[in-house]
Amino acid sequence: MRILIVEDEKKISEFIKRGLKEENYAVDAALDGLEGLRMAEENPYDLIILDIMLPGMDGLTLCARLRAGGFGAPIMMLTAKDLVEDKVKGLDAGANDYLTKPFAFEELLARIRALLRKTPAQPSTTLEAGDLNLDLLTHKAFRAGRELILSAKEFALLEYLTRNQGAIVTRTMISEHVWDINFDTATNVIDVYINYLRRKLESGRGKKIIHTVRGKGYILKP
Ligand code: CA
Question: Does 25 lie in the same domain as 64?
Fold first, then answer.
């Protein structure tokens, strides 16, 4: 899943970015409101972490602009202020959640997981597809109870395919949600990673689960 951080305090931005990358998220960062707006309009982010006090354009305006433009992914507001009025304004502008600085990184992660789950009844820390099980807390993947040893990128790719199980995902979608803005579209790195995953998923007696859809992309079907 790919996240945009819009935060002008470099230290905080770097801290969040590093932590999220360790959790296998693809992460881009914008240091002012206008850059944030441009990046959010150009890239299909799965979630935006948005500071309120920003140069260029403040977070409330940016949030309202994105919502007016049809941006549908979750937005989490971040601010040093802890005023009820600001929280109300943020939620009214279209934010889904709110976190006051300073915050514990674990809380940020838990809120992100909650915002990214599709059905509220589903526990936010695991994903399932047939005999495939992903633990989003430990980043461990299991097939029929057997643990698969995956690299961080392989896990992120498998997580994206599993979240979209039953639907075709194109290489563009994969590059946009699993890799960050530095992804080189001229390479075949996605196919290479798909092959790594297949080898690990289908070793032993594992049935084929990642299918190629000719001319379109891939589909994970349990
Ligand atoms: Ca700020």
Answer: yes
Residue 197, domain extent: 126-220
Whether residue 121 lies inside any domain: the answer is no
Q: What are all long-range contacts of 193-196, with beta carbons under 8 Å and residues at least 24 apart?
A: 193/153, 193/154, 193/157, 194/157, 194/218, 196/151, 196/154
Whether 186 and 135 map to the same domain: the answer is: yes
Q: How many angstroms is it from 17 CA to the middle of ligand 1?
A: 15
Cα of 78 to ligand 1 centre, how many Å? 9
Average pLDDT, the chain: 92
- Distance between Cα 205 and ligand 1 center (Å): 53
What's 71's domain CATH number? Answer: 3.40.50.2300
Give me ligand 1 centre to Cα 58, in Å. 9
pLDDT in tens, 175-217: 999 999 888 888 899 999 999 999 999 887 778 999 999 999 9
